[in-house]
Amino acid sequence: MNIAVFASGRGSNLMAILNAIKEGKLNAKVSVVISNNSNAGALTIAKENGIDALHISRKQFSSDEDYVKKILSELRARNVELIVLAGYMKKIPPEIIREYPNKILNIHPALLPAFGGLGMYGMNVHKAVIDYGVKITGVTVHIVDEEYDHGPIVMQKAIEVKDDDTPETLAERVLKIEHEIYPEAIKLFVEGKVIVSGRKVMIKNED
């Protein structure tokens, strides 16, 4: 399966996906990495691994329509079947969501629907978790729809919030979980095991 990874930052989840592919755990190919940030570490990782690395930002285009057309043309040119958001800091245009229904994944550093929505990203999430005083947080992989952090949940994994956690220590532990479960969730899509019915996700059994 041809995958496109959208990333805005250093690309640690991209690296986890590439490692899973290299280790034979994930039968897929990252065909292109797209970033809105020309300095994203994810673009460097892509280039180092022989993957097309594209900087595509809305600021480069005179209209939303031209911006969307550019992204879709690059995806179609590579026969992309699944889009994986890995720390991508821009909302996906609805035209792209409609072009790839139930084929866009995102990973969120909390147990959705808690601590999601506009502004809930990165360290903001971990600070909110600690400030609220919850004892459990974790990671959610979900399908992207037209609302922030709203689409059907594919996979979650929980971890304890320790009494002495800071946003930074919590972020470090959560990121390790992200690197574990994102390749696992992508594998379910690659193997055709995901069935989406409304807001419910069902996973086919081996039999």
Summarize the entry for a quick read:
This protein has 207 residues and is an alpha/beta fold. The protein contains six helices and nine strands, in the order E-H-E-H-E-H-E-H-E-H-E-E-H-E-E. The protein has two domains: 100 residues, 3-Layer(aba) Sandwich (Rossmann fold); 101 residues, Formyl transferase, N-terminal domain (Rossmann fold, 3-Layer(aba) Sandwich).
Per-chain topology:
Layout: E1 2-6, H1 12-22, E2 29-35, H2 41-48, E3 52-55, H3 64-77, E4 82-85, H4 94-99, E5 104-108, H5 123-132, E6 136-143, E7 153-160, H6 167-190, E8 194-197, E9 200-203
Parallel strand pairs: 1-2, 1-4, 2-3, 4-5
Antiparallel strand pairs: 5-6, 6-7, 8-9
Helix pairs in contact: 1-6, 5-6
How does this model look, in words?
It is built from 6 helices and 9 strands, in the order E-H-E-H-E-H-E-H-E-H-E-E-H-E-E. The chain is α/β, with parallel strands linked by helices and 207 residues long. It folds into 2 domains: 100 residues, Rossmann fold, CATH 3.40.50; 101 residues, Formyl transferase, N-terminal domain (Rossmann fold). Helix 1 packs across helix 6 and helix 5 packs across helix 6. It starts with a strand and ends with a strand.
